[in-house]
Each structure stands twice: as C-alpha cells, then as structure tokens.
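FORM 12-B: Structure-to-Sequence Request
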C-alpha cells in the first residue's frame, strides 16, 4: 500500500483513470462486436459500423488504453473478416 502522501494521491488518481480506461475499452469491444455481427447485411450498414469501430479503436489508442500495433491489428483483422463475410 502507498505510504507517502504523494503515493497515496497517485493511487487515487490511478483509480479514477482506471474507470475511464475500462469505459473506453468496453466501448471499443462493443463496437467491434457489433461490426462482426453485421455479416451478410447491406454494404452501407457494414461500412458505417466499420467506421464506428475504427473510431472507437483510434480513441482507445489515443487515450493509451491499447498500443499502436494492437490497434492496427484489430483494424486489419476486422476489415479482413468483413471482406471474407461479404464474399460468401
């Protein structure tokens, strides 16, 4: 447990930031999940949901919730999944 006054303050701040990080990560996961669920639907809806998922991934990257390569991997895999599903 934190001993010094500064360490206690840093711990409180990290607990507050944790809430925002979890919220951002959950929003990202939900948008990716909804994009994967739209397989076989019309192209315009797929593109809109893909755009929203990309936006959520980029926001998580900007906030430092995920790393740059993780964001790139998630985007690439999502785009490839939607491309494969539309070919079927």
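FORM 12-B RESPONSE
SEQUENCE OUT:
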């Amino acid at each position: 447990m934190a001993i010094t006054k500064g360490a206690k303050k840093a711990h409180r701040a990290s607990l507050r930031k944790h809430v925002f990080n979890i919220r951002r990560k959950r929003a990202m996961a939900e948008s990716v999940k909804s994009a994967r669920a739209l397989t076989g639907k019309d192209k315009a809806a797929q593109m809109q949901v893909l755009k929203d998922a990309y936006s959520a991934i980029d926001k998580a990257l900007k906030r430092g919730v995920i790393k740059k390569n993780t964001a790139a991997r998630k985007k690439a895999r999502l785009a490839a999944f939607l491309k494969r599903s539309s070919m079927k």
